[in-house]
Specification:
1001 residues, 7-stranded antiparallel sheet, mainly beta
Length: 1001
């Protein structure tokens, strides 16, 4: 998962990677085709992207780049620009110019490839100018992208280089440090404005009418919420509009939940110079990760051109241009663009198949999902050959829990008998980092009879391969909910993440399905949403999707439908149409049934909002009025319906009541249904004290049912009291709570530190707390001391600092709970770029170790040397020092202008502490016959004999191989002895034995 410098967005270069351009192709002749729909060219013969519309005379041109990547290539392969032309958008007759220009043939100073988003405008002199981002062949700039300018007397060329060099780069017309791509141009009379930029940096610069001479200096644009790239400038009725690809991702984002996708947002201003005010989103995320707008008025109608992945064989790097109408809300000031309705409107896939996951509601353990992933990918029935993160659901955060789960919920019971799951990985199992297939997993279903989760019966197995769908069959069960629980792969201390591209649930297949006769009123076009499907002795109401119908006159007709999960084909029903006024003699009240649907929990609770359907049946077959009340509130009546849905929200206990009244005025008895909701998971807290974890949990609604815990990678066990460390090592305790509604909390963790009371020796890095001056989001500071020396580490197994801005120095630091005596350290660097590039990650110029002396950082004394290898550990020894903190300060390598990042795979710190001696000593003065003596006793409590030396001011004594006590009384030769200290030396350790003064009478 090399997220280090790869960004899957239109108009981006993969920094530090050399991409060989495709062999130059001959310019293709234009041809005309007709396709009145989107994408404009949808057959997959040519993929186009980055549309830039232009009106010339009565013709609409859309200039594009050409996507030439293979179906599994995750990179922009763009070697030329082309265009589409039409005189009637609705008719869909287009002339395609597949190859109007190539970077290396149009600009002698440009390299081949990377033909990114450009724009054609008509200049004040009537000629056409094409602003094109290309890569300079020879440049000293850190980023070689530049904007060239071509000119032509015709919208289709021939085109020639207008300048002989870049119009804009990191060197001209003035220096900048951004990537100079995605130009958009506004020609307003004789004033020319150029806007350009990406990666959240947008600049503008005015030019004279010659299109080449700058006016003033380039300036930055602010006020664009979530701006990422792809700006497009235009004017309407003296208001200026700046549309752009936005990406302020998150679960509550108005733009996109996933940070690989983009919406088209826009801002307005009263002048081309700004200031700009954000106005919202005009186009929601499309099927490709990137989005790129071109907005223009043509023959009185406004249009937006954009690209998608919707053509045959399309993908994120095989995009195709589409065009749709833009409508305006002129009641606002300034006028706003209404949200664009993408055409064709996506229709439900009604292909008969066993999979029913596409109709399920998805919930996951890691909500909110990390923004690089997209939970919608789980059941969108799209599997790509080389997916990007938003093509999957994933859990990677750099600190991954031992278990995750995915759950599907249907509104009605379904009969299921199989599963197909497609795992994704970028690391092998057992590494404990990155994304790996789970160590094991299982499928469970909600057993309504026991109100508990149960393992599916007799599963065929739970394979964990990552090459295609992994199949599991099991004995058929009936349920409204199914979940997959994944035990993450681990190296014994850390856990890999889990990722799933698609998870299908396969319905059990009945012998046949016979649709019942249907009765509707004239004018009624909605048919019943379910049909009865029989499985042995069990009959279920299963969703059905009917062909559209019209019921203008009484009579009968057949209709075909697709039953969810029924793979054998369509079903056919006979529809009888009746008159709504046929009520004579009707004295029978309708019957009413209240049916709840939601995420069912235990003990009658639901774990989500609950939809209660009040469904009426009348003996004449007509529609009725249904009235519903929630918790004694105001009644809501719906006329001329067969059912009414009411949504109950909010944790707690509720009551829904309803009545139905038929056309003749017959009213049913009131039906009532209690609804209990607890949608909030319990919250547990772990407190570490005396190397034990005490867990408490709370739940505000249904109450806590149980708490479980696991030590390191061990099995889950019921919590009954403080969890003590099993030994002196560092341990991770996972814990989670379940409430009485069945809500299971995502596991939390607490760390029991290692017991540092004993003398320490060897590498004590793993028991330190690591910190750093900066850590890239895809790397992990915890990789420094994960005690793993992997030959080819993944990004999560590295501490690294790559970012757009890289300083000259970075540091990493270890902290311990107490001072430790250190004698050496070693670390191994990681690199992906050569020294001298000033880019990527390179081996540093040097580094040094420092220790904290209690007040300031000090260099270690007499270091043996500081190597900078990325293939072997760089070991340094030094004069022993006792400290609770060590720091390595690293000097980054440079090209003279910019600095490379630095990265370390592992950092070891070596302790060398002697065991505390088992010998104790006492000294006491005594009087014997008026004379003073000093009695010294050394006691060996150890199991081995030791040599002991006793020294005093009055003499010394050596004892060999003492197993118990060494005693000596020293004569003072005086009647008095002053206070002092005797010393006892054993095994290189000196023990002081103080004594008091004494005068003998």
């Amino acid at each position: 998962m090399r997220l280090l410098r790869i960004a899957a967005v239109a108009g981006m270069v993969v920094a530090g990677m050399l991409i060989a351009p495709a062999t130059a192709a001959l310019a293709a002749d234009p041809y005309t085709f007709t396709h009145a729909g989107n994408p404009i060219l949808a057959d997959g013969t040519y993929y186009s992207a980055d549309p830039a519309p232009l009106v010339a005379g009565d013709q609409l041109y859309i200039y594009t780049g050409h996507d030439e990547a293979g179906p599994t290539t995750n990179d922009f392969q763009m070697n030329e620009w082309g265009a589409f032309r039409t005189s009637d958008v609705a008719a869909g007759t287009w002339t395609h110019y597949p190859s109007l220009a190539r970077p290396e043939t149009l600009f002698s100073w440009a390299t081949a490839g990377r033909a990114y988003a450009g724009q054609v405008v008509q200049g004040p002199d009537g000629r056409y100018f094409w602003y094109l981002p290309v890569s300079e062949r020879v440049s000293t700039a850190a980023d070689k992208f530049a904007i060239g300018l071509a000119v032509s007397d015709s919208p289709t060329g021939p085109w020639t280089d207008y300048l002989g060099g870049p119009l804009i780069s990191q060197r001209v017309p003035s220096t900048n440090d951004i990537q100079n791509i995605d130009p958009t141009i506004l020609v307003s009379g004789n004033r020319v404005f150029v806007y350009w930029g990406t990666f959240g940096q947008l600049r503008w610069l005015e030019y004279q009418p010659d299109m080449r001479t700058p006016v003033g200096t380039q300036k930055s644009i602010t006020g664009l919420t979530g701006f990422f790239e792809a700006p497009w400038i235009f004017e309407r009725n003296n208001t200026y509009y700046l549309a752009y690809a936005g990406n302020n991702a998150g679960p509550t984002s108005a733009c996109t939940p996933a940070n690989y996708h983009a919406c088209i947002a826009y801002a307005t201003a009263s002048s081309p110079e700004g200031p700009w005010t954000y106005r919202g989103t005009v186009l929601t995320p499309v099927s490709s990760t990137t989005s790129h707008p071109g907005i223009i008025q043509y023959k009185g109608q406004w249009y937006i051109a954009y690209h998608t992945a919707d053509a045959a064989g399309g993908g994120h790097f095989r995009r195709s241009v589409a065009i749709d109408k833009v409508e305006w809300d002129d009641t606002l000031s300034p006028p706003r663009m209404k949200p664009v309705v993408q055409t064709p409107v996506k229709q439900r896939d009604r292909t008969p198949r066993a999979n029913i996951a596409q109709e399920a509601k998805v919930t996951v353990a890691n909500d909110p999902v990390p923004t690089q992933y997209w939970v919608k990918a789980l059941n969108d029935e799209i599997v790509r050959g080389n997916p990007l993160p938003p093509d999957m659901w994933g859990t990677w955060t750099g600190s991954n829990p031992p278990q995750q789960w995915v759950q599907y919920t249907w509104d009605q019971p379904m009969r299921i008998a199989g599963s197909q799951i497609d795992f994704w990985n970028d690391q092998a199992q057992g590494t404990g980092v990155g994304v790996a297939a789970p160590a094991k997993w299982k499928i469970q279903y909600w057993n309504s009879a026991t109100a508990q989760w149960a393992d599916v019966p007799n599963p065929s197995g739970y394979p964990t391969g990552t090459a295609g769908f992994q199949n599991t069959t099991f004995d058929a069960v009936t349920t409204t909910q199914v979940r997959a629980t994944f035990d993450a792969s681990t190296n014994g201390s850390t856990y890999s993440a889990v990722a799933v591209e698609e998870w299908k649930i396969l319905a059990a297949q009945p012998a046949s399905v016979a649709a019942p006769a249907l009765v509707v009123e004239t004018g009624e076009t909605e048919l019943p949403g379910t049909v009865p499907v029989t499985f042995g002795t069990e009959t279920l109401q299963v969703p059905v999707y009917w062909d559209p119908v019209t019921t203008a006159e009484p009579g009968t007709f057949p209709v075909a439908g697709d039953v969810l999960g029924y793979a054998a084909g369509k079903v056919t029903a006979t529809v009888t149409v009746i008159s709504p006024g046929d009520t004579e003699g009707d004295v029978t009240a309708p019957t009413l049934t209240l049916t709840p649907s939601g995420s069912a929990g235990t003990n009658g609770w639901y774990r989500s909002s609950v939809k209660v359907r009040a469904a009426g049946v009348d003996d004449r077959g007509g529609r009725m009025t249904i009235s519903t009340v929630v918790d004694g509130g105001a009644a809501v009546a719906v006329d001329s319906v067969r059912y009414a849905d009411v949504t109950v929200t909010g944790d707690g206990q509720h009551t829904v009541t309803a009545t139905a009244t038929d056309r003749a005025g017959n009213r049913s008895a009131a039906a009532s249904l209690p609804v209990k909701i607890d949608a909030a998971v319990p919250v547990s807290t772990g407190t570490v004290a005396d190397r034990a974890v005490t867990v408490t949990a709370t739940d505000a609604t249904s109450g806590v049912a149980r708490i479980e815990y696991a030590i390191d990678t061990g099995a889950w066990a019921a919590y009954a009291g403080p969890i003590a460390a099993p030994d002196a090592s560092k341990h991770t305790v996972s814990f989670r709570a379940t409430d009485n509604a069945g809500n299971l909390e995502t596991a939390r963790t607490a760390t029991i530190p290692a017991d540092l009371s004993a003398p320490l020796s060897g590498n004590v890095g793993p028991i330190a707390v690591p910190t750093a001056s900066y850590t890239a989001g895809w790397n992990s500071v915890g990789a420094l001391n994960d005690n793993a020396d992997v030959a080819n580490p993944g990004q999560a197994q590295i501490w690294g600092t790559w970012s757009g801005t890289r300083p000259a120095t970075q540091w990493i630091q270890y902290d311990w709970a107490r001072p430790i005596r250190f004698t050496g350290a070693e670390l191994k660097f990681w690199r992906d770029s050569a020294k001298g590039t000033g880019d990527g990650v390179a081996e540093p110029d040097g580094w040094k170790l420092q220790y904290w002396d209690g007040a300031a950082w000090q260099d270690v004394l007499s270091p043996s040397g500081y190597g900078t290898s990325s293939t072997a550990f760089n070991t340094v020894t030094f004069t022993p020092v006792t400290t609770s903190r060590l720091r390595a300060t690293i000097n980054a390598n440079s090209n003279g202008t910019t600095y490379s990042a630095v990265a370390v795979t592992e950092w070891r710190a070596f302790a060398d502490e002697q065991a505390a001696p088992a010998v104790t000593a006492t000294a006491a003065p005594r009087c014997i016959a008026g004379k003073a003596y000093l009695a010294v006793n050394a006691h060996n409590a150890g199991s081995s004999a030791v040599d002991i030396t006793i020294e005093t001011a009055y003499g010394s004594k050596v004892f060999a191989l003492v197993t118990a006590d060494a005693y000596q009384s020293f004569a003072v030769r005086s009647a008095a002895i002053p206070a002092g200290t005797a010393t006892v030396t054993t095994s290189g350790t000196t023990i002081n034995a103080p004594h008091s003064a004494l005068t003998c009478n």
